[in-house]
Amino acid sequence: MVYDVVVIGAGAAGLMCAAQAGYAGRRVLVLDHANKAGKKILMSGGGRCNFTNLGTTPQHFYSANPHFCISALKRYRPEHFVELVDRHGVEYVEKTPGQLFCATSAKEILRVLLTECEWAGVEIRLKTQITTLERKGDAMCLATSLGRIEAGVVVVASGGLSIPTMGATGFGFELARQFGLDVLPTRPGLVPFTLSDAWKARCAELSGVSLPVSVSSAGRRFTEPMLFTHRGLSGPSMLQISSVWQPGSAIEVDLLPAEDAGDSLRKAREITPKRQLSTWLGERFPKRFAQALLEWYPDPDLARPLAQYSNAELEQWGGRLNQWTLKPAGTEGWRTAEVTMGGVNTQAISSKTFEVKDLPQLRFIGEVLDVTGELGGYNFQWAWASGVACGQAC
Ligand code: FAD
Hints:
This protein is an alpha+beta fold. The chain folds into two domains: about 1-190 and about 340-394, FAD/NAD(P)-binding domain (3-Layer(bba) Sandwich), CATH 3.50.50; about 190-330, Elongation Factor Tu (Ef-tu), domain 3, CATH 2.40.30. Helices cover about 30% and strands about 25% of the residues. It has 13 helices and 22 strands. The strands form five sheets. Strands 1, 2, 7, 8, 9, 10, 20 and 21 form an eight-stranded mixed sheet that branches. A hairpin with a 2-residue loop joins strand 8 and strand 9. Helix 1 (about 10-25) runs parallel beside helix 13 and helix 10 crosses helix 11 (about 285-295). About 45% of the residues are buried. It binds flavin-adenine dinucleotide. Flavin-adenine dinucleotide binds near residues 43, 377 and 380. This is NAD(P)/FAD-dependent oxidoreductase. It comes from Vreelandella aquamarina.
């Protein structure tokens, strides 16, 4: 079998790339070892796929080569993908400013991509194992469970390591190494934190409670909700900070990001001296969390009114609330991580065509590359943008 373009991976980037190459008149084959295309799309955004972010800029991405993503993101913008889903009649909602989700189901996005591939004449073969990829003169040769396949160009769109049960493998990284490319160390990103014994039990009791917080670590800060889970801490703020968190280090959570808690407590003591601390906490936090705070930090006499608290005591409470500091034991790892930090070093890849600089027959797109977005639809925007740039250049 001979094709102009073979794409490895029928995920977001691979399908987008294949459709573009197909429209450009290329004979295109997409191969995937999974039994279904676009599995991650289907599970994304809680089943509703946060398919783009209208505010996408290169600053929303982590990479050792921060300029690499600029060209593709500039050429294929969120509005272009919105135009595409509009043409296919997909209804969507803007949940948080800029974040677009399907109104009904992530299946709609997969339908768009598969329809585009069909219209562009792309062939998709699932449940296909690829055993080797070799260069043969100007062409690339794949040994697969379908037999030998020859291609003018092979595009590696096999994604990262997150959620192995959804078909994730390190195959793209192995191919990169085989062709002499550098792979930057990988680690799970956008992943919930696990806690050690005492905090694990405390947080487990609060499982399901969500708070608007501001979290900081490693010089970054995110102000978004935090969710207690039976394993530790999750929710958008924790997923975001997990991407920069260094194992063994602490995270600092501002539980009342809109106010200086020490200041507010002193004012409350002045204005409402008879009020109790528990009442003050109960006005600011969900009941279960306010109660938990008082159990974690026992007060010598909870019945006393605020008037009887010293400045030092109120300052101490202020610190607990504005700088709640804890050391995660780790993260939930690849099992639940949404993305892979690190990946194929982009120094050897063209930011215009995504070809390997001294081997144009081989290209890498999407999450397999060392380009990782923050939470909020940026990762799919990268998949679309890199897929389009590469597909059009094939
Ligand atoms: P993938 O979509 O991972 O596709 C890779 C494909 O390659 C897969 O089909 C896989 O089966 C195939 N493959 C792997 N190894 C092989 C092999 N050896 N042989 C053949 N085929 C292979 N991002 C957002 O922007 N918004 C969201 O709402 C969002 N939600 C997410 C929710 C979850 C739970 C997860 C896990 C991720 C989420 N993401 C989200 C991230 C987003 O899904 C990825 O960034 C995106 O799918 C990457 O696209 P890709 O095409 O590079 O890789």
